[in-house]
Structure formats: structure tokens, C-alpha cells
Amino acid sequence: MKQISILGCGWLGLPLAKQLVQKGYTVKGSTTSSDKLELLKNLGILPYAINITAEEITGLIEDFLENSEILIINIPPKLRAAEKEGFISKIQILIPPIEKSTISKIIFVSSTSVYADVNDIVTEDSVDEPATESGRQLFATESILKNNSSFQTTVVRFGGLIGEDRHPIHFLAGRKNLENPEAPINLIHLKDCIGIITSIIEQDCWDQTFNAVTPFHPSRKVYYSQKALDMNLDLPEFNSSSVSKGKTISSAKVQKVLNYRFKINPL
Q1: Handedness of CA 104, 29, 197, 215 (dihedral sign)
Q2: Distance CA 90, CA 95 (A)
Q3: H-state helical runs in the chain
């Protein structure tokens, strides 16, 4: 069985690591929290305390990568804080240790924010025109990894992430004057995130880019109003005075190439 290193055992990375351990893989997992090391160990994950900044890597990065064939990079840009990080520089400082290691394949967890908010269907062949700084840095990072001949990279662009403990309605409930009521939703459940990454590994599907969004796209107004009712929350109020703007992310490729069938309908 392959050995896999997961850089970033957070909301997605931790349950992904658990799933891979259950499937018989040897998994190394990193965290920036020393309090989490014992948890990883108890779950059968080889724990590493690693922190990456634009200037340096602290922690045993060489040991973390040693003897692993696959590296999953799951560290999203932190651009909302007062001190915004240079995500591109973080990845660039990570490249030399990867090149010196046994890593030959990378899965990079990206986002559909690399696409502009066009009122159209967006596929992996669409022109990437990020409208946000996060999207710009993610797209630049994708290019850095895909253009490196030392390893093969598959990029997974996830839509809005939801799970049992995570849903945007908790943020939107009761809010007023929300924009883009007719824009389509592009969400994906945690279980499908894990399922798609696992399928990539099991099928040796490399040098690819996949959009990963559940293929159900009701409008924001319809979807979030119904979710508020389902969860007994205050209804969000939308502003319909201007034309709604929003893309529909196609996940046809992940269904065709990986023969993946989505497990969770966010409706």
C-alpha cells in the first residue's frame, strides 16, 4: 500500500486521513497545533507539527515527506486576517523539500474561486479570471505545482464546503439585503470531498484538474430560504433590485473521468 502525507489535518484533512488509514494506507498528517498531535496518533495517523510561512518551515518537513509517494496539500490561503499571508510564497518555500523527497504525486486542494463570476456554465476548460485575491493566489499556486516536472499534480477545485457541523445558512440566517438572489449555489459535502480525493488516489489519476461541486444548482434565494426553514432559523432576506450574478460550476468531468457518483445531495 502507498504511504501518503497530508499537509493540513483540519476540517477536511483529518477525516480524509482517517478514511485512508481505514483503507490500509500508511498516513502521515501535519498540524500547526501541538495539542492535536495526540489526537492524530490515536487515530493511527503519524503526527507531525509543521508550520509554513512565507519565510521558513518549522518542523521535521523532511521526515514528514520521507518514503511517501503522494502528498496532499490542504492548506487554504489565510487572507481575511489583519496580516494577510503570502500563500504563493508559502508553496514556493515548500517546493525544494518536495523535490528532494520521494514524493512523485501531489493532490492540491484548490477552490472554484479561481473562476470569475460569469453568468454561465464553467468547466475546467473555462478561462481562469479570479475575482478575489484568494482566487488569484490559488490559481498561481496551481500553475507553480502543475509546471514542476519533479512530480505529477492533480488539482481539485472544491465549491462551497458543507458538512454536519458546517453550513453557510448559519451565517446567512436573519441577514437582510443579501445580493444575487438568483445566482446558483455551488456546494459540496465533506463526504464527497473525501470520496473524490480517494478516487483520484485509487485510480492513479494524475496531471488533471477537476471541478468538485455537487451537480444541483438551485438559486441562492430558494436554497437558503428552504434551509432556514428546515433548521428553524430566521429567513434571510434578499435584494432583488439588481441583476443577479453567479457562475454554475460543472462537475461533469469528475463524474466522467473518475466515474464518481455524488453521495450527498445538499438539497
Answers
A1: negative
A2: 9
A3: 13-22, 37-42, 61-65, 87-99, 133-146, 169-172, 190-202, 220-230, 252-257
- Grid cell listed for 205: 489519476
pTM across the whole model: 0.94
**What are 211-267's pLDDT values in tens digits?**
999 999 999 999 999 999 999 999 999 998 888 888 999 999 999 999 999 998 766
CA gap 205, 102 in Å, rounded: 18
Q: In angstroms, rounded to a whole number, what is the distance separating the alpha carbons of residues 86 and 251?
A: 29
Residue with cell 448559519: 170
Check: CB of residue 162 under 8 Å from CB of residue 188.
yes
Q: Per the structure block, which three cell numbers stand in for 267? A: 438539497
Give the pLDDT confidence of 186-212 residue by residue, as tens digits.
Answer: 999 999 999 999 999 999 999 999 999
What would the DSSP string read from start to end of 44-104? T-EEEE-EE-SS-EES-HHHHHTT-SEEEE------SSSS---HHHHHHHHHHHHHTSS--
Question: What is the helix, strand, coil percentage profile of the chain, to 5?
Answer: 35, 20, 45
- What gap in Å lies between CA 147 and CA 217, rounded to an integer? 33
- pLDDT tens for residues 42-69? 999 999 999 999 899 999 999 999 999 9
| Grid cell at residue 171 | 451565517
